[in-house]
């Protein structure tokens, strides 16, 4: 069997931006973070040579809109608190659409505000754990969520 058909193949891109937010929407409660966003992308293109510059330029420009901002004041979070989860879901949905136009599949997006707190969002299964127990729990959660929306 061809090794390319046997394994899940993806690229991982990592970006950082600095922003602040408040969990109460009060200005005096805002605090800064250096957010890290990781994208797991699968190419749907048939070519052997992959050009990454289009993706890198888009993501850098897209995240630039958040750089140095108070996230609570941005239109994307006008009706919700910019929690890590709300941010991850917004970034995932927006970037997924753009990547699809360029024949890329956004498999997963991870966002963290510190190394101990990472939020992952995906509508597919990326088995990032060597622990079978954890992977099977993730699979069950994804399948249950899909069943609710069908």
What is the quaternary state of this protein?
single chain
Identify the overall geometry. globular
User: Helical amount among residues, as a percent range?
Assistant: 25-40%
Structural class: alpha+beta
Largest sheet: 4 strands, antiparallel
Taking the alpha carbons of the first and last residues, their distance comes to: 35 Å
Strand order, main sheet: write it out: 1-2-3-4
Mean pLDDT: 83
Contiguous helical run count: 4
| Binned strand content | 25-35%
Give the low-confidence spans.
Answer: none
Please provide the ordered H/E string of secondary-structure elements: HEEHHEEH
Radius of gyration over all CA atoms, rounded: 17 Å
Number of strands: 4
Brief write-up:
The chain has helices at residues 3-6, 53-64, 84-101, 132-149, and strands spanning 11-21, 31-43, 104-114, 117-121. It is an alpha+beta fold and 150 residues long.
Written account of the structure:
The chain has helices at 3-6, 53-64, 84-101, 132-149, and strands at 11-21, 31-43, 104-114, 117-121. By secondary structure, it is α+β, with helices and mostly antiparallel strands. A hairpin with a 2-residue loop joins strand 3 (104-114) and strand 4. The longest helix has 18 residues, at 84-101. The model has no long low-confidence stretch (mean pLDDT 83).
């Amino acid at each position: 069997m061809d090794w390319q058909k046997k394994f899940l193949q993806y690229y991982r891109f990592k970006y950082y931006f600095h922003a602040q937010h408040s969990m109460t929407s009060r200005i005096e409660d805002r605090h800064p973070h250096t957010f890290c966003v990781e994208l797991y992308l699968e190419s749907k293109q048939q070519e052997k040579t992959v050009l990454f510059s289009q993706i890198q330029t888009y993501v850098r420009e897209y995240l630039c809109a958040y750089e140095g901002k108070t996230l609570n004041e941005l239109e994307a979070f006008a009706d919700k608190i910019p929690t890590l989860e709300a941010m991850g879901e917004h970034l995932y949905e927006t970037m997924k659409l753009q990547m699809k136009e360029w024949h890329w599949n956004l498999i997963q997006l991870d966002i963290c505000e510190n190394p101990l707190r990472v939020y992952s969002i995906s509508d597919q299964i990326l088995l990032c754990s060597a622990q079978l127990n954890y992977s099977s729990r993730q699979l069950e959660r994804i399948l249950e969520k899909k069943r609710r929306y069908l």
